[in-house]
């Protein structure tokens, strides 16, 4: 099958399997939810994709990408994330506005256009959400992936990635100034359960655990409120 002839629907499935499966298997139900279609249409499509060599599919275990399917998913992700970066850096889009545009454009541009774009952007390794941009050769740049909701009081996180495509959620995080590159400190974990208190640029904000779970990054040094300094006081 010529690459340019690959249908939009097939490409969207391959990307969804990549994203949902995290490099492994993606269940039919998770794919149905992600693509907003019924489980039976997912099953039908997965059987087709298997016949064409893009995935291996077992009825009750879901689908995994073949080597060929993985390469195609990464090729589309590379396009998608380069386009998002371009829209923000050159066309003045807000970072929560770009996903839908990129979804449409990624199927329309050629490999040549993609590589010209990469050149012009200076070969970025990550897009504005902090998602890694697959390389031309199909490699994936490493990205720190510790979740904010897994951290203890006093922990410091340098945000690397917002692991969501939800425009409302991205806009919310942007308003709180929780963005890639930002350093946030967990000031309190509980109570009440279900929220995380964090400090962002000297301002205290509260986020739900659900929101905190998409904020990923690298753990920095512990904050000044750690237990270490108190030890000597009551000693002996
Ligand atoms: Zn996107």
Describe the 3D structure.
There is one protein chain. The protein has helices at 8-21, 28-35, 39-51, 67-91, 98-105, 111-121, 167-175, 209-212, and strands at residues 55-58, 62-65, 146-147, 156-162, 183-188, 195-200, 203-208, 215-219. The protein has 236 residues and is α+β, with helices and mostly antiparallel strands. The chain folds into 3 domains: 3-65, Winged helix-like DNA-binding domain superfamily/Winged helix DNA-binding domain (Arc Repressor Mutant, subunit A, Orthogonal Bundle), CATH 1.10.10.10; 74-142, Arc Repressor Mutant, subunit A (Orthogonal Bundle), CATH 1.10.10; 146-219, Ferrous iron transport protein A (FeoA) (SH3 type barrels). α1 crosses α4, α4 (67-91) packs across α5 (98-105) and α4 crosses α6 (111-121). It starts with 7 loop residues before the first helix and ends in a 17-residue tail after the last strand. Mean pLDDT is 87; it is low at 1-5 and 222-236. The structure holds zinc ion (ZN). Zinc ion (ZN) binds next to α4 and α5.
Could you give a quick summary of the protein structure above?
The protein is an alpha+beta fold.
Molecular shape? globular
Which architecture of the largest domain would the CATH scheme give at its second level? Roll
Question: What structural class do you assign from the helix and strand content?
Answer: alpha+beta
Strand order of the largest sheet: 3-8-4-5-6-7
Rg value: 21 Å
In N-to-C order, the SSE pattern is: HHHEEHHHEEHEEEHE
What share of the residues lie within helices?
Answer: 25-40%
Structure ligands: zinc ion
Content of β-strand: 15-25%
Quickly name the level 1 CATH class of the largest domain: Mainly Beta
Tell me about the biggest sheet? 6 strands, antiparallel
In CATH terms, the superfamily of the largest domain is Ferrous iron transport protein A (FeoA)
Uncertain regions spanning at least 5 consecutive residues: 1-5, 222-236
**Total domain modules:** 3
Q: Total number of β-strand segments?
A: 8
> Overall pLDDT, averaged?
87
User: What is the overall number of helices?
Assistant: 8
**End-to-end distance:** 77 Å
Say what the CATH topology of the largest domain is.
Answer: SH3 type barrels
């Amino acid at each position: 099958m010529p690459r340019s002839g690959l249908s939009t629907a097939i490409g969207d499935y391959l990307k969804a399997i990549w994203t949902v499966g995290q490099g492994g298997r993606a269940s039919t139900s998770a794919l149905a939810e992600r693509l907003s279609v019924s489980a039976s249409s997912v099953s039908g499509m997965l059987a087709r994709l298997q016949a064409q060599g893009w995935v291996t599919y077992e009825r009750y275990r879901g689908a995994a990408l073949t080597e060929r399917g993985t390469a195609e998913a990464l090729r589309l992700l590379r396009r998608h994330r380069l386009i998002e970066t371009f829209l923000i850096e050159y066309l003045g889009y807000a970072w929560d506005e770009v996903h839908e545009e990129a979804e449409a454009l990624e199927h329309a541009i050629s490999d040549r256009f993609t590589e010209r774009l990469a050149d012009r952007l200076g070969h970025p390794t990550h897009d504005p959400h902090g998602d890694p941009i697959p390389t031309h050769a199909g490699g994936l740049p490493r990205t720190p992936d510790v979740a904010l909701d897994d951290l203890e009081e006093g922990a410091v996180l340098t945000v690397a990635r917002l692991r969501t495509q939800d425009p409302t959620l991205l806009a919310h995080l942007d308003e709180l100034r929780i963005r890639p590159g930002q350093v946030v400190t967990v000031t309190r974990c509980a109570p009440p359960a279900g929220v995380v208190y964090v400090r962002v640029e000297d301002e205290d904000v509260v986020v739900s655990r659900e929101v905190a779970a998409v904020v990923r990054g690298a753990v920095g040094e512990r904050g000044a409120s750690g237990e270490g300094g108190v030890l000597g006081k009551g000693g002996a």
